[in-house]
Design brief:
A five-stranded mixed beta barrel has the order 1-5-4-2-6. Helix 2 links the parallel strand 4 and strand 5. It is an alpha/beta fold.
Length: 150
């Protein structure tokens, strides 16, 4: 294997990242736990730059609004009742574009094995405007399906 690509869904973390938009990930914050067993906590999970450029070009050519930048990989998007605020709010304040559950592990495993990895997400909602319990989350709605990723 020489390439690893994730095409999936994620939730927007910035006001301008809305359902139906595409997000091409340049890196993934490691907030999921698994990758701590593979690399030191401060080590970044990076997408391959050449593959990321190709994904950016393809996403832009699709006609869908496209964003490029850091995403957050988490084990769960649901709030922890023991924390005063959701963990993803810190990432939002730092400029993360979206949240999802797989890219950090894929990027890091690819780095360890010399594989080119990239990721593109269709935004299926925005956590800034979602119900606190995410009861309004609907990844199957038309605007998500029309983006053709995920």
């Amino acid at each position: 294997m020489t390439h690893l690509l994730r095409a999936g869904t994620g939730g927007g973390l910035q006001p301008h990242v809305q359902a139906g938009d595409l997000v091409v990930a340049t890196a993934a914050e490691r907030d999921e736990g698994f990758t701590d067993r593979l690399a030191p906590p401060g080590w970044p999970a990076l997408a391959d730059p050449a593959l990321t450029r190709r994904l950016m070009q393809s996403a832009a050519a699709s006609g869908h609004r496209t964003h490029t930048g850091v995403v957050v990989t988490t084990a769960t998007c649901y709030p922890d009742p023991h924390e005063s605020e959701p963990r993803w709010l810190r990432s939002h304040r730092l400029g993360a574009l979206a949240i999802e559950m797989e890219l950090a592990a894929r990027f890091l495993v690819a780095q360890l094995h010399g594989i080119m990895a990239g990721g593109v997400l269709t935004v299926d909602g925005n956590l800034l405007t979602a119900a606190e319990d995410l009861s309004d989350h609907d990844p199957g709605r038309t605007v998500v399906a029309d983006a053709g990723v995920g």
